[in-house]
Specification:
By secondary structure, this protein is α+β, with helices and mostly antiparallel strands. Helix content is about 30%, strand content about 20%. The protein starts with 20 loop residues before the first helix and ends with a helix.
Length: about 170
């Protein structure tokens, strides 16, 4: 039986990998991850899904050490603890979802990151929940990953984006 973690998300949607499905399937689900992923779903994925008004695919949720290494994740990644999810949302809709998260969800989460490709088009969104782990105490960080760098969304180069989506 599938285990529901929010209105529209199931736990198994967070144990996935397009490039390494065998590693995703091999992961052993731990109770503390179920709690963390329930928070990821209810505090980030579900509100964004509700805002967009249609289904959102999770491209990466929990990663054990092997899967995290295989996908080139940071060793300190919140994915390792089931505290983060990558959402398959791109283009204009990704900017809208990102701005929505910053305006409405940010105080309850650790960070939201929008990933841009080499033509500055959004390709996916990463969201993480607040953590009790001492090495991960950040709250409300909004970053843009572009050209290999993490840049604060408050940077002046994103003034036009903030203006374009100010109604959200
Ligand atoms: Zn991520």
């Amino acid at each position: 039986m599938r285990y529901k973690v929010s209105n529209n998300f199931y736990l198994d949607e967070f144990y996935v990998s397009k490039d390494h499905p065998e590693l995703a399937r091999a992961m052993v689900i731990k109770t503390e991850e179920v709690i963390s992923l329930t928070r990821v779903a209810t505090l980030i994925c579900q509100p964004i899904r509700d805002f967009l008004g249609h289904g959102v695919t999770i491209s990466s949720g929990k990663r054990d050490n092997m899967l995290n290494a295989a996908v080139g994740g940071e060793p300190t990644s919140q994915h390792r603890y089931g505290e983060a999810a990558d959402m398959d949302i791109d283009g204009d809709e990704a900017w809208r979802a990102y701005i929505y998260a910053i305006k409405h969800l940010i105080n309850d989460i650790s960070q939201v990151i929008i990933y841009l490709n080499n033509t500055s088009i959004p390709t996916f969104i990463h969201g993480g929940v607040k953590s009790f782990r001492p090495e991960c105490r950040k709250v409300g960080e909004a970053l843009v990953k572009v050209g290999g760098l993490y840049i604060p969304f408050s940077d002046r180069r994103f003034d036009n984006i903030r203006t374009r989506y100010r109604e959200i």
